[in-house]
Design brief:
By secondary structure, the chain is α+β, with helices and mostly antiparallel strands. It has one helix at 27-34; strands spanning 6-12, 15-21, 43-45, 51-53.
Length: 54
């Protein structure tokens, strides 16, 4: 096990998930990249208070 990774445990869609990830990984990225739940949306607020989804 890599010392730079942290263990996370959560339940997604009724299934228990246990993985080691980088501490900087965002939840949305984890769901999309590790669990292939591509319907997960990421959003950012721009300076003009406009919400941008990607």
């Amino acid at each position: 096990m890599n010392a730079e990774l942290v263990k996370i445990e959560l339940k997604v869609n009724g299934k228990k998930v246990c993985k080691y990830v980088a501490p900087s990984m965002r939840l949305a990225d984890f769901l999309r990249e590790e669990l292939h739940l591509i319907g997960t949306k990421k959003a950012v607020m721009q300076e003009n208070a406009e919400l941008v989804l990607f």
